[in-house]
Amino acid sequence: MAAAPQKSEKERIFEAWDKPAVLDPYSPYNSLLTGLKEQNDELYKIGCSLTENYKNAHIMQTNNPNICELLNEWLNKKKNIHIKSEEDFENKKLWNDYIEKLWIELEKDNYRYYWCRRNFPSSYIANALATSFTILVSTIIIFFFIYKYTTIRSWLDIFINKKITLKQNLYDDISNGLVETFSEYSDSQAPNNSINLSYSS
Hints:
Blueprint: H1 9-18, H2 30-39, H3 41-60, H4 67-82, H5 89-107, H6 124-149, H7 152-189
Keywords: Membrane, Transmembrane, Transmembrane helix
Organism: Plasmodium ovale
Protein name: PIR protein
C-alpha cells in the first residue's frame, strides 16, 4: 500500500486557517463583524477566521518569514470563492465594507502595528487590458509582415492612390466652379472689360 503524499507546509497552514474560528466576545472587532453576521453568515465566518489567523500568523512569523504572503493568498482565495464575478455587486460590497476594512483594523493593532500589509491580486480589468493590448500588438505586427511581403501592399497602395486622386479631382472641380462663377459675376459688372481713368487738371 502506497503512503499518502506528504502535504506541504503551505497546505497544512491553509487547512489550519480554514477551520472555523470563534471570535472572543470581548474582541474589539466584534462591533465591525456583527453587521456582517446579519447579512452574510459565510463572510462573517471568514471575518472571524481572519481575525484569529492574523494574530496567529504574527506569532508564526519568526519560523515562517513568508507567512504574510500566505495570509494574503489565503484571503484572496476566499475572496475568489465568495465573489463569483465582477457583477457580484452585493458580495463585493460586503467584502469591501467588512473583510477589507477588518484587515485595515487588524493592521492598526498596537501589538502588531502594520506587520503585514494587504496585497491585492491584479484585477479582472487589468488582466483584460493586458490581454487586449497583447492581441492588438500581435495583430499589428502580423499585419505589418503581411503588408510588407504580399500583394496586399500593392492593393493598399492602389486604394490609397485612388482616394488621393479622387480628392484632388474633387478639389479641382470645386476650384474651377468657383473661378467660373467669379468670372461670370465680374463680367456682368464690367461689360466692356476696360478701365476708365479720368484726370482733373
